[in-house]
Amino acid sequence: MTDSPVTLITGGSSGIGAAAARLLLARGHRVAVTGRDHARLERAAESLGRPAGLRTFVADASDYDQVAGAVRETVSAFGRLDTAVANAGFSPGGSLADGDPAAWRDMVLTNVLGPALLVRAGLPALRETRGRIVLVGSVAGFIHIPGSLYGATKWAVTGLAENTRRMVTGDGIGVTLIAPGRVETPFWDRYGAAPEGPMLTADHVAESIAWAVGQPAGVDVNTVVVRPIGQPR
Q1: Which of 84, 90, 103, 137 pairs as cysteine with 141 (C-beta 3.0–4.6 A)?
Q2: From the first residue on, what is the mean pLDDT of each consecutive set of 10 residues in the chain (233 residues)?
Q3: C-beta neighbour count of 4 within 10 angstroms
Q4: Cα–Cα nearest to 18, from 36, 1, 41, 39
């Protein structure tokens, strides 16, 4: 157990993050997850059975001190860090024409600054293990959605992934962007309802994350776009 890989996932109390934590734990990883809400983290830990290989940390993905603290606590608890998964992100709904500007700052900071802060905080430990960085983006970071500031944040994540790869590949660190299409998660709660049509599940996306994390040493898979069959764009 002490030699098993260690993965830190931001935004791991629900949705894709929680599904990835469950799958990686089942495959022998030790896993740390962060989230803003202590009660939601507790429920997530309970649903995972509170295994010895799980740690939870209350941390805001857009606050460097909190993110760096979660990285330090993970390394302190498990002795290493092999993978950092920047998963935290959300949309308040609406467009540039009818959305709530008061909610935009928090979204931009979480979706764009958050992954950058995790990269910054995790780099020293990841250099030691020649580990991996996984950024959870979106198909919205490859296509234009009219008036979508959320989509613009995901275009930023797409760029951040390649910028990061070019920075760290000489250190032996892999970088993978996972860009899912429509996923059946609490993401849609702010929209009132999920859109009609086929959707992935959080478990489907978790499989893509685990596949990227499980690549052999020396293999760097950079971009994985995964849509449900039937999603046209």
Answers
A1: 137
A2: 90 94 97 96 94 97 98 98 97 94 97 98 98 98 96 98 98 98 78 78 97 95 97 89
A3: 15
A4: 41
DSSP state of 9: E
Could you give the 3-state DSSP secondary structure of residue 228? coil
Question: What CATH code is assigned to 6-226?
Answer: 3.40.50.720
Q: If you search the block for the tokens 């490859």, which residue do you land on?
A: 142
Residue type, 52: A
Token pair 């997850």 is found at 33
- For tokens 């009609």, the residue is 196
- Which residue in 57, 78, 90, 150 is the catalytic one? 150
Strands (E), 12-101: 30-35, 54-58, 83-86
Q: Residue type for 81, please?
A: L
Q: Encoding tokens for residue 213?
A: 């994390």
150 catalytic per annotation: yes
What residues does 44 pair with on adjacent strands?
Answer: none
